[in-house]
Amino acid sequence: MIITLCGGGSTFTPGIVKSIALRKDELDVDEIRLYDINEERQRKIGVLVDWILHEDLGLDIKLTVTTDKKTAFTDASFVFAQMRVGGYAMREQDEKIPLRHGCVGQETCGCGGLAYGMRTIFPMVELIDDVEKYAKKDYWILNYSNPAAIVSEGCRVLRPNARIINICDMPIAIIDVVCAALDIDKKDVEYDYFGLNHFGWFTSIRHKGEEVLPQLREYIKEHEILLPDSYLKGMGSLMAKKPEEATDEHPEQNRHTKGSWYYVWKGEHEIMECFPEYLPNTYLNYYLQQKEFVEHSNPERTRANEVEETREKNLFDGIDHYEKTGEIDESTFYAGSHGDWIADLAIALKNDTKQRFLVICENKGAIPNMPYDAMVELPAYIGKNGPEVISRDNIPLFQQGLMMQQLNSEKLIVEATIEGSYEKALKAFTLNKTVPSMKVAKEVLDDMIEANKGYWPELK
C-alpha cells in the first residue's frame, strides 16, 4: 500500500503523515511518498516527516521524497493532493489586488478564488493524467487543493472519468468548534448539510440522535459569536497546542480560529440574527457581508502575511533548529482533524466501511432544484466504489438563488480558463457577489492578468 502526498512541501504534510501513520493497520500502509516541484522546501518537510515516522512513532513505513512523477506515482493506491499553485506569493496577490479595488480579498472566495482557480485547473488535470499513467488502476485521488469548487468543476469538465474525490475540511472545523461550544463529543455527532464548496449550510446537527441546532442558536445569540471563550483567549496566535499540553487557558486550537478569523466567527452571529434557520458555513460571511469585511481588512497585511509570519516561519525555523541540534519541538507543526479526516476517508474507501463524509460531487438530482451537473457539497456514504450521495428535497429559494449565482460564476471561470476567453472571465468576475459592479470587475481582472502572467492561459 503506497500513499503519495502531492504538495509534499506543504506545512500540513507532517500532520497528515502522522494521521496516516497512526492508522497504519487500517490502511495497511507500507510506503509514504512526498512529491513536490519545490525540492528544497520539500526536503526540509521530509526531515520532519522522517522523524515522525521513524523516531517519534518508531514505525517501519518507508519514506520516499521525490520531485519525479514516475517515482511519486508508480503503483500508488492513494494520492492526497494539496497543491498551492504560485505559493504564498500568489496568495498574497489574490488577497491584496481585490482589496485595492474595494472588494473582498480572500484566497478561495471572490476574485481571489477565481484567480487561484484559473491557476490550478490545468495543473490538477496534469496530476490526474500522471496518476492515471503510473498508479494502480484502482487508484483514488483525494483532492483538497483550493479552491475546491472551481477545481472540481474543472475536473468534471476535462477529466470526467477520473477516480477523484474532492473534499474540504472547513465543515469539519466548524463542527469541532460547535462541539467545543456545546461541550459535546464529536464522535457522537451527525449532521446534514448542503451547498457548494465554501458556500453551504448545516440544516441539522444531532448529538446522540438529539437535535442541537436550537441549543446552538441560543449559544450564538448569547455570546454574539460561535467561538467558545477558551478559543477566544488564543485568537492572537496561529499555532496549535499539542493535545497533551492543552489547558482551559491554552486549549488545543483549531487552525481556523486564529488571528483574522475572529471576524469570520463573529459573522456567524450576524448572519443568524437575520437568517436563523440554518448554520452557515463561515465562508458565507465574505458573500453576505462583503462591505463589512472590506472595511475591517488591512490591504497591506492580509491572511497570507499572517500565515507566513507564524505557521510557515515557526515550522521551518523548527526544522532548521532540529537539523542543527537534534532537538524537536512538536508544537511547530499542525496535527489535528484535518489530517485525521483525510486519512479516515482513505480507510472508508479501502475497507468499504460506508462511513458518512461530506464530499463535493456532481449533483445528478441529489438537490432537485439545482442543475444536474452542478458540483455540490453533500453528505455521502463512502465505500470501495466511491461516494453514495444522500439526496434531499428542494432547497429554499434564498439559498438556491445564492448558490446559482456562485455556481454560474465558477462555471464561467472554468470555461474562460479552457477557452482562453477574456469575456467569460469578465462575466465570472462581474457575476460574483463580492464584486460591486462591472467596472470594478474589469479593473480587478486586468490587474489579476498582470499578476498571473506565467500561470494563467492567455485571455483574448
UniProtKB/TrEMBL annotation:
Keyword field contains Membrane: no
Residues with site note (Increases basicity of active site Tyr): E107
GO biological process entries: carbohydrate metabolic process
UniProtKB keywords: Cobalt, Glycosidase, Hydrolase, Iron, Manganese, Metal-binding, NAD, Nickel
SUPFAM superfamilies noted in UniProt: LDH C-terminal domain-like, NAD(P)-binding Rossmann-fold domains
Residues at the active site: D169, Y283
Residue ranges of every copy of the Glycosyl hydrolase family 4 C-terminal domain listed in the record: 193-435
Protein name: 6-phospho-alpha-glucosidase
Organism: Collinsella aerofaciens (strain ATCC 25986 / DSM 3979 / JCM 10188 / KCTC 3647 / NCTC 11838 / VPI 1003)
